[in-house]
Amino acid sequence: MQLRPIKKLMVANRGEIAIRVFRACNELQIRTVAIYSKEDSASYHRYKADEAYLVGEGKKPIDAYLDIEGIVKLAKDHDVDAIHPGYGFLSENADFARRCEEENIIFVGPKHQHLITFGDKSKARTAAIEAGIPVIPGSEGTVSSVEEVRAFADAHRYPIIIKAALGGGGRGMRIVRNEGELEEAYNRAKSEAKQTFGQDDVYVEKYIENPRHIEVQILADQNGDTVHLFERDCSVQRRHQKVVEVAPSRSLDEKVRQAICDSAVKLMKSVNYLNAGTVEFLVSSNGEFFFIEVNPRVQVEHTITEMITGIDIVQSQILIAKGYGLHENPILIPEQKDINWYGYAIQCRVTTEDPSNNFMPDTGKIMAYRSGGGFGVRLDAGNAFQGSVITPHYDSLLVKLSTQGLTFEKAAAKMLRNLKEFRIRGVKTNIAFLENVVKHKAFLEGKVTTSFIDSTPELFV
Ligand code: ADP
Fold first, then answer.
1. How large is the ipTM?
2. What are 246-255's pLDDT values in tens digits?
3. 346-356 exposure pattern, b = at least 16 Cβ within 10 A, e = fewer
4. Whose CA is nearest to atom 14 of ligand 1?
5. Could you tell me if 250 and 259 are in contact, meaning their C-beta atoms sit under 8 angstroms apart?
6. Which residues are catalytic?
7. pTM (2 decimals)?
8. Which residues form ligand 1's pocket by a CB distance below 6 Å?
9. 205 among annotated binding-site residues
């Protein structure tokens, strides 16, 4: 097999995920390159790389990390062999992956065709149907008139959900509970989609009440060898955005777990998927499961899968991109039947948001910072240290706190103890809110669905 050399790797991202990738590179003896916007001149990720370059001068803070040609040029100018896109920003941008391929820079991710298929949720749905994976009853492709949506609702009954085809991050979704709400919801969904994602394509699905969000971690190499690393339960969500994740799920019947994991592998094999990806499902209260989307990249919550399997997903990504097979040295993932998980892991997303003010992002200088730690604890942080200035320009994730225990109860106790150990002054955080979540009876009993947070007012006090 032809291996491609990776001596130098650039991360086209910022914050904790950039640092996460640099750490993987350091262990693989790969030289690291950061890019940073003007606003990120003092950001920690800049200093964690061997080299760092300013990108997107004169552009808006977010646009700096979306500057495809600027980033490709920096990579060429500095002899970068590979680019890891992290999550968000350009990670699902097919043009960026294609430009890297054209310039002979390794894009650490799938082929750009996969990003085209999975970047558009309605195309992804079609791929799932073709692979024989159960999907939520929905429109065939995108819808182009309110009448089409009405006809769908008449056939399938309310509630329904209108979703932006290019949506992500829990945005671009509208639940419609009755005919009276339909027209306005449709128009709003379209204009929001246009505004947020630059394109107003929307599609419709039946809205599943109180489901669980279960997702399967996949790794695939260029030989078509594809394995799953079990599932994560990401049902603890606020407004369709994940807040706390658990691996493995505690609520799945063994047969359903197996069927979901097998379906995920089947779908990814059917498109000849390459590298790391996640297949997301909703599971209804009676154990029926439905595909919702594929995230063709590393995810924020990959940490907990690493903790329960011992498999380094980011290193695997880089080594797969180099050309190694999954079971070859140095990736060394066992055959599927021999991949095991051990104990339970939980991740909390600690953000600089104010729960008492509708989770508005808070900004300012961190005057004091002390984190938890100890056995079975993992911290993945960006600008989380005393003196760091939290700006309003980027997302509000401050540090990912993950804990592992032999049982779920032990992992949860460790999580609570760690949350309590944190001392952060100068910016508001969601820590007290997270404490309320992880000590809540429903969470401890493994009974939460995606409506848990939004329907549990006592979490907010
Ligand atoms: P995003 O890409 O924005 O994360 P997803 O399609 O993954 O969007 O959905 C995010 C969340 O929205 C899901 O975990 C679930 O809580 C909710 N959701 C999406 N589609 C449906 C549906 N058809 N029925 C019920 N909830 C849904």
1. 0.98
2. 999 999 999 9
3. bbbbbbbbbbe
4. 213
5. no
6. 297
7. 0.97
8. 136, 161, 167-171, 173, 205, 207-208, 211, 213, 237, 240, 280, 282, 292-293, 450
9. yes
